[in-house]
Design a protein that fits this description.
mainly beta
């Protein structure tokens, strides 16, 4: 079964930037999405990109995060700018609502 490979993340100071990416060797007319989860809390949706490149964002990240994709490689990116300590979480991507990345930790220090 095809698997999502997720990369990026790490630690950064507040105001900094990070980029996450996900790729899968599978091509379907599906949306990509990002979720994040803080330890002890529910996973929350933060952004999606549709097959025709329509994007949507949670209010908490709108204006700071940008989702994009490379159709040829079926790779999706999340550019995170102006990071805040409250963005600290485990970030996971999903393709077609089915294929989940392994998750990557993002830690923002004040």
């Amino acid at each position: 079964q095809a698997q999502v490979q997720q990369s990026g993340g790490g630690s950064v100071q507040a105001g900094g930037s990070l980029r996450l990416s996900c790729t899968i060797p599978l091509f379907r007319s599906c949306a990509w999405a990002w979720y994040r989860q803080v330890a002890g809390k529910q996973r929350t949706w933060i952004s999606s990109i549709s097959p025709d490149d329509r994007t949507s964002y949670a209010d908490s990240v709108k204006g700071r995060f940008t989702i994009s994709k490379d159709k040829a490689e079926n790779t999706m990116y999340l550019q995170m700018n102006s990071l805040k300590p409250e963005d600290t979480a485990m970030y996971s991507c999903v393709y077609c609502g089915t294929y989940w990345g392994q998750g990557t930790q993002v830690t923002v220090s004040s």
